[in-house]
Amino acid sequence: MSEAESSHSYLEIRKKKFIDAINLSRQSLVPYSYTVEGKLTRLVGLTIEAKGCQVNVGGRCLIVSPTNQKIEAEVVGFSGSKSYLMPIDNFQGAVLGARVIPTKDNHKLPVGKELLGRVIDSAGNPLDNKGSIETSESRDLEGDYINPFERTPIESPLDVGVKAINALLSIGVGQRMGLFAGSGVGKSVLLGMMTKFTSADVIVVGLIGERGREVKEFIDQILGQQGLTKTVVVAAPADCSPLQRVHAAKYSTTIAEYFRDKGNRVLLLMDSLTRVAQSYREIALAIGEPPATKGYPPSVFAKIPALVERAGNSSVAGGSITAFYTVLVEGDDHNDPIADASRAILDGHITLSRDLAESGHYPAIDIEASVSRLFHTISNPEQIKSAQTFREYYGRYKKHEDMINLGVYQHGTDERIDQAIEYYPRLLDFLKQDMREPFNHEASIGQMNAAMIPKASMNTNNP
User: Fold this and answer.
1) How far is CA 227 from CA 30, 175, 207, 364, in A?
2) Secondary element (H or E) of residue 416
3) CA distances (Å), 288 to each of 47, 55, 297, in order?
4) How high is the pLDDT of residue 293?
5) Which residue intervals of 95-174 are DSSP H helices?
6) Which pLDDT score, from 0 to 100, does residue 279 have?
7) What does the pLDDT read at residue 126?
8) Which terminus of the chain has a lower count of CB atoms within 10 Å, N or C?
9) What are φ and ψ of residue 264, in 5° steps?
């Protein structure tokens, strides 16, 4: 070996020993895990201010009073050295100077087929007195981001069992629809019909911010045991804290994502998206975010699309989430900020009419004010043509209804109006449906076509 080669070999050996020494020293440095506690300094409304604790936004803390009373809270913001928290549940007993102890940052909750047929709260605890629920899996509430190119196109219709929707407002597998309704016009009954009659594999129902008595009524009287067998119900009534209502909405979506990732066709029904937005508003205003559009802070209009975008198709898993979000139109004001924003981000909307409901017309679907943006994509040309003809006759009659009822219009003046008058009673009967009577997709289209057969043809076929 030459002198140069010997020198190079010596340097390589020294270099290797030096690197090994550094790696050994790094392995000996065991990280020290510690928790930095804080003190409760202020309590205003639902907002708890704490100083001294180190925790991330979204993290959980335990507030421990001198009497050892414990309250769980979540960090919703910070300003300088202050951390803003909101209680998860009841916060009676919080006192000035109480210890604020960070506990955990992740919000993983149980998911699995064991949840089918059960009614749970926003933390996964059973509400139906059927015993505890043991699941083998858990998931984060925030869900996973879906690349737009990993979403399969919406190409096939989903049978929801309601003939007016199946025939005139066909919903695609993976579509996201809004159900716009005021109070007391039958939106809960319509949701129950879709839950019982749909062809989806799994149904997830989120009852967010509604009256507490309606939870049991929806389960017992509207959904029934038949509908509950393949359904998971997540309930957070109006007396729950804003955080619990938000968590219930996210949890419902997380459960739907779990079943979608197993390859199932999932129907997600959330009642209501308005209550979710109001919960976000309460949280944002409590920590000092300024109101913008009619009292709603800007962050609300960012969080609602983030929740809605989690539904839809996934080419990776092969499953789908078809979602219906009810939007409470308070005072029948369809220009409400949440209603307006929802129409922009959803794939269509179904509007329920108070006038129809008061006249005993159920489901009170206002066909003229409702639209499915994917109807022409998932329907065949024959159905599209029939639906257009149906809407034309129905709209023509409604436009001249006052003249017809007052007797001002003379028969024979306009042939198209004469046809609308002839068909209107049958069109109206088609739009009505008993809550206990299902109609599949083919039967719905068949009845729609039958409603537009002229009387002469009917007499010929049935002498």
Assistant:
1) 54, 21, 16, 22
2) helix 415-431
3) 10, 19, 10
4) 80
5) 163-168
6) 94
7) 93
8) C
9) -85, 155
With helix as H, strand as E and coil as C, how does 353-415 read? CHHHHHCCCCCCECHHHCEECCHHHHCCHHHHHHHHHHHHHHHHHHHCHHHHHHCCCCCCCCH
Return the SS3 of 307: helix
SS3 of residue 147 by DSSP: coil
Cα torsion through 267, 334, 222, 138, rounded to 10: 40
Taken in order 377, 383, 389, 395, the sign of the CA dihedral is: negative
CA end-to-end distance (rounded Å), the chain: 115
Identify the pLDDT of residue 460.
Answer: 53
Residue 256 near residue 204, CB atoms below 8 Å? yes
Q: Within 152-241, where are the H helices?
A: 163-168, 187-197, 212-217, 224-228
Low-confidence ranges of the chain (pLDDT < 50): 24-32, 463
**CA atoms of 152 and 315, how far apart (whole Å):** 5
Tell me what pLDDT residue 26 has.
Answer: 47
Q: In the beta sheet, which residues pair with residue 108?
A: 140
Q: At what angle do helices 300-308 and 273-286 cross, to 10 degrees?
A: 140
The confidence score (pLDDT) of residue 30 equals: 40
What local confidence, expressed as pLDDT, does residue 31 receive?
42
Q: Check the CA dihedral 396-399-402-406 and report its sign.
A: negative
- Judge contact between 25 and 66, C-beta under 8 A: no
Whether the Cβ atoms of residue 112 and residue 258 lie closer than 8 Å to each other: yes
Residues 299, 35: Cα–Cα separation, whole Å: 30
71 beta partners: 63
Answer whether 195's CB lies under 8 Å from 158's CB.
no
- Of the candidates 120, 108, 326, the residue with the CA atom closest to the CA atom of residue 233: 120
Q: Where are the alpha helices (DSSP H) in 309-367?
A: 337-345, 354-358
User: Which position has the token pair 């199946």?
Assistant: 166
Question: CA-CA distance, 263 to 409, in Å (whole number)?
Answer: 57
For residues 421 and 401, what is the distance between their CA atoms, to the nearest angstrom? 9
Question: 170-203 as b/e, with b when 16 or more CB fall inside 10 Å?
Answer: bbbbbbbbbbbbbeebbbbebbbbbbbbbebbbb
pTM: 0.86
Q: Quick one: pLDDT at residue 225?
A: 79
Instruction: Give every CB contact of residue 332 below 8 A, 6+ residues apart in sequence.
Output: 182, 354
pLDDT in the model for residue 327: 93
Residue type for position 284: A
